[in-house]
């Protein structure tokens, strides 16, 4: 098993650009390899799979960062009637409770969305969900790349093949000079390279602007945005929660979900305090997407 992992790892290293020194630790490597089990097709041939990098590390890779922004911007332009549109995929995560790809609730089931909060299914549900998001990003990055003509085309296609959805390490202590909350989520514009030169585009990571016909009746604004209200004390709290989860949960149910499976009644007081489900919610509340008010993934 381990040998298989190593082979896959070497392949990945040999083909997509290798990690900057210090970026990839053994744990990340194992995770990255495991991630390949949740395959999203990046359009590459020959089995090459890039790493899922922390967003600041991705930023260091000029071509992948560029195709990430261009692909993300295109992703958000896809018509909301399409199952692979940003609107429909974001709506899987929470409000508005629209049916994804016409997959209606079963008879007698509530139409309160697909999310599996307060269940041991939550972490595994969320991983498959992110794989779908990554797949949509890849398709759009590749579409952008394939529109490029001339000498530059190979470079863009290559970057799209290697691109994977980055993570944000919210538990990382910021450098004293850096903002606690990454500016890449709040800057109005981003500088990108296009075949016809450098240009500023509206930062696709900053907000989602609903089209008038898209249901956003769950909030009294036309746009969601990331909140800057993420401080050092939030980071310290999240680190403490994470440590408590990793060090005190004795069973997978305790580790994975807020729900108590020991028969205790529902209600906030009887929920498990430290687990992946709770940390996930906490991050949403702190960074926006309006998870703070209602459960929306926008
Ligand atoms: C992009 O925006 C920045 C900041 O407003 C500006 O300094 C820069 O000249 C712009 N670049 C281009 C290519 O438009
Ligand atoms: C979140 O929803 C509330 C309630 O509808 C709204 O007032 C607020 O502007 C929204 N915030 C963001 C960040 O979208
Ligand atoms: C949202 O956009 C509509 C037009 O589509 C406008 O009438 C309305 O005032 C906007 N709402 C807010 C809160 O800006
Ligand atoms: C920032 O977070 C604090 C709690 O940590 C909250 O009381 C406050 O309302 C938040 N401010 C904004 C602008 O969301």
Automatic annotation (TrEMBL):
Residue ranges annotated for the Tyrosinase copper-binding domain, each copy included: 117-134
Class of the enzyme per the UniProt entry, highest EC level: oxidoreductase
Reactions catalysed: L-tyrosine + O2 = L-dopaquinone + H2O; 2 L-dopa + O2 = 2 L-dopaquinone + 2 H2O
GO molecular function, one term: tyrosinase activity
Signal peptide limits: 1-19
Membrane-traversing stretches: none
GO biological process terms, semicolon-separated: melanin biosynthetic process
The entry's keywords: Copper, Melanin biosynthesis, Metal-binding, Signal
UniProt cross-references to PROSITE patterns, sorted A to Z: TYROSINASE_1
Enzyme Commission code: 1.14.18.1
Family under the similarity heading: Belongs to the tyrosinase family.
Name of the protein: tyrosinase
Organism for this UniProt entry: Cladosporium halotolerans
């Amino acid at each position: 098993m381990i040998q298989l992992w190593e082979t896959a790892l070497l392949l990945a290293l040999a083909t997509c650009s290798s990690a900057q020194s210090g970026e990839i630790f053994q744990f990340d490597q194992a995770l990255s390899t495991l991630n390949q089990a949740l395959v999203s097709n990046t359009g590459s041939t020959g089995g090459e799979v890039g790493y899922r990098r922390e967003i600041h590390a991705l930023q260091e890779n000029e071509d992948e960062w560029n195709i990430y922004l261009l692909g993300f911007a295109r992703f958000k332009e896809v018509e909301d009637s399409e199952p692979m549109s940003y609107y429909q995929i974001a709506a899987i995560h929470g409000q508005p409770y629209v049916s994804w790809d016409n997959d209606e609730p079963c008879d007698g089931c509530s139409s309160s969305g697909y999310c599996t909060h307060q269940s041991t299914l939550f972490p595994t549900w969320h991983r498959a969900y992110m794989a779908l998001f990554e797949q949509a990003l890849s398709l759009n990055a590749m579409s952008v790349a394939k529109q490029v003509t001339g000498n530059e085309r190979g470079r863009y296609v290559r970057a799209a093949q290697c691109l994977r959805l980055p993570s944000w390490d919210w538990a990382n202590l910021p450098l004293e000079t850096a903002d606690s909350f990454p500016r890449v989520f709040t800057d109005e514009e981003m500088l990108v390279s296009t075949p016809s030169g450098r240009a500023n585009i509206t930062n696709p990571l900053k907000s989602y602007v609903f089209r008038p016909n898209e249901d956003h009746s769950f909030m009294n604004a036309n746009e969601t945005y990331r909140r800057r209200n993420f401080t050092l004390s939030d980071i310290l709290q999240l680190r403490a929660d994470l440590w408590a989860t990793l060090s005190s949960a004795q069973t997978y149910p305790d580790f994975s979900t807020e729900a108590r499976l020991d028969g205790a009644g529902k209600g906030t007081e009887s929920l498990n305090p430290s687990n992946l489900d709770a940390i996930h919610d906490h991050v949403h509340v702190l960074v926006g997407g309006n998870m703070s008010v209602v459960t929306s993934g926008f």
